[in-house]
Amino acid sequence: MITPDHRDPLPFFVYGTLRPGEANHDQFLRGRTHTEEPARLPDAVLYDGPGYPYAVEAPGEAVSGDLITALPQAYGRLLAELDRLEEYTPGDPRNLYERVARDVVRADGTAVRAWVYVAAPRIAARLRAGGRLIAGGDWLARR
C-alpha cells in the first residue's frame, strides 16, 4: 500500500464539529465541497473532548461521520485551514490531532481512502486511561 503525501488531495472524513449542522461546518466547509455523504471509520472509537470529540484507533469498533470531498479549487486552502483548526503540523509532538490516511466505508459498503484527524499519541494515551467514550461512536447522537 502506498502512503500518501501529507498534501495529497484525499477526501476528508469528519466526525465532530465539521459535520453538517455542526458549528464548524458552516465556517469551514459551506460552499467548498463537491459531495458530503455518510460514512464510517472502522477500527476506531470516539471520546468526548472539551467541546469536540477525538477519534482513537481501536480494533472492532467504528465511528460515524461524513465523507467530505472538497471542490478542487478550494482544496489547498481548505487543507491548510483544517490543519490549523485541528492544531496539526506534520511532525510536531505538540499536536492535538494527527492527520492520517485511513479507509472509511460509505453507506453502500465501498471503502475510500480519506484524511482523518485522530487523537495524537499523547492525547490518545490520556483518553484511553480515563476519557469518556461516546457510546456508539456517533458525535451527533451524544445529546
From TrEMBL:
Boundaries of every Gamma-glutamylcyclotransferase AIG2-like domain copy: 12-140
Segments traversing the membrane: none
- Lineage, top-rank taxon, reads Bacteria
Question: What Pfam families would the database entry show?
Answer: GGACT
| InterPro entries listed in its UniProt record | AIG2-like_dom, GGCT-like, GGCT-like_sf
In terms of CDD domains, this protein maps to:
GGCT_like
Q: What is this protein called?
A: Gamma-glutamylcyclotransferase AIG2-like domain-containing protein
The species this protein belongs to is: Streptomyces diastatochromogenes
